[in-house]
Amino acid sequence: MTISLQGLEKEYNQRLPIYKQLEEESVYILREELNNSELKIHSIPSRIKKFESICRKTEEKELKYALNEITDVVGLRIVCLFISEISKIGDIIRKSFDVISEDNKIDGFDASKFGYMSVHFLVKIKDSFTGTRYNSIKNINFEIQVRTIAMDAWANISRHLNYHNELAIPKELKRDFYAISGLFYVA
Length: 187
Known about the structure:
Elements: H1 3-35, E1 41-43, E2 46-48, H2 51-61, H3 66-69, E3 74-80, H4 86-96, E4 97-104, E5 119-125, H5 132-135, E6 142-148, H6 149-163, H7 171-186
Parallel strand pairs: 3-6
Antiparallel strand pairs: 1-3, 2-3, 4-5, 5-6
Helix pairs in contact: 1-4
């Protein structure tokens, strides 16, 4: 391991408690707001990016200050039942957090990319949240993705097929997977 990776790992481990606090607080805020709405949410999984993923992304993108440049060290996903709920959830996210950017990967999607369909929000804790509980997490950007159960199911399947399978999918089967992808969209 090089010195820069050792330094990155040390910094990552020092920030890990803050990332955990940000993850817990943001999930709490979302759950409270969603519980106060009439929306039925399937799940709100969250994660902190593993150090190995940080290293991979740092190398791929040639990042100099990785932990300041990677915007999804902390990531949440809201999995809802219906596509019509996604815009309503977006309103709740905008009300609950300071939104830095939005990326709608649903409108005008490529049928072969169904597994990547979702709306991504880059956010941070609102400045109106005050006190020592929020001081260390206030200025850290994190990502919230919103998708339906069908989108999430297909994302998990396609991620497994694309990244976790050492054997390439034969060309004739890819067409079938794209067709299945369309069925997931219709569902």
